[in-house]
Amino acid sequence: MTVELDSFRHEVRSWVAASAPQDWRAASATHADFLATQRAWFKALVAGGYAVPHWPAEWPGGGRSLAEQKIIYEELARADAPRLLLSFVSTYHAYSTIEECGSDAQKARYLPAILEGETWCQGFSEPGAGSDLAALKCKAERKGDVYVVNGQKIWSTMAQYADRCLLLVRTSSDGPKQAGITFLLMDMKAPGVTVRPIHQIQGDEEFAEIFLDNVEVPVSERVGEEGAGWAVSKATLASERGLTLMELSYRMRGGMWRIAELIRTNGRQDDAGVLRDFGRLATQVDAACALADRFLENRINGIENIGDASVVKNSYSRALRAWTALGLRLGGLDEQYRAPITFGDLNTGNWMADFMNSYAWTIAGGSEEVQRDIIAERMLDMPREPKSWVGA
Question: Which residues are part of the catalytic machinery?
Answer without folding.
Answer: 240
